[in-house]
């Protein structure tokens, strides 16, 4: 573990990241949230399985993830197709969440929007080969 990984929550009070997943199969959304729940504390309970909402428009599933403590490394998870994930939070928290996702998926940054204290990042997740 390097010194950047040993940083405490007190030094980075903005340890929560908002995660949005949309326009994908419910199984893929579940795989993403399950990997996050394995790695970090999430507001989505373990038995919470994303469901498609009938009607016009896209269904967006969200979670708030606290990346303060690394619980366990998630095993690689298969996806039916690539999943686009939008994450928003403090710089340290967003970077830590990306690292956590990388244990379960191949992660590619599609774009970023930077602010003074926070950033928003769009990721493309794929099955690790």
Largest sheet: number of strands, sense, barrel closure: 6 strands, antiparallel
Mean pLDDT: 88
The strand count comes to 6
- The helix-and-strand class reads alpha+beta
Give helix and strand order, one letter per element, not per position.
EHEEEHEE
- Strand arrangement in the largest pleated sheet: 2-3-1-4-6-5
Please mark out the parts with pLDDT under 50 across 5 or more consecutive residues, or reply none: 1-10
Morphology: globular
Helical segment count: 2
Q: Which oligomeric state applies?
A: single chain
The first-to-last residue Cα distance is: 25 Å
Helix content: 10-25%
Radius of gyration: 14 Å
Return the domain count: 1
Strand fraction: 25-35%
Task: Please explain how this structure is put together.
With 129 residues, this protein is of the alpha+beta class. The protein has one domain (11-127). It has 2 helices and 6 strands. The chain has helices at residues 26-39, 91-102; strands at residues 16-22, 41-42, 60-66, 83-90, 105-114, 118-127. The protein has a 6-stranded antiparallel β-sheet, with helices on one face. It starts with 15 loop residues before the first strand and ends with a strand. The model is unreliable at 1-10 (pLDDT under 50).
List keywords for this structure.
129 residues; alpha+beta; six-stranded antiparallel β-sheet
Question: In a nutshell, what does this entry contain?
Answer:
The chain is built from two helices and six strands, in the order βαβββαββ. It is of the alpha+beta class. Strands 2-3-1-4-6-5 form a six-stranded antiparallel sheet, with helices on one face.
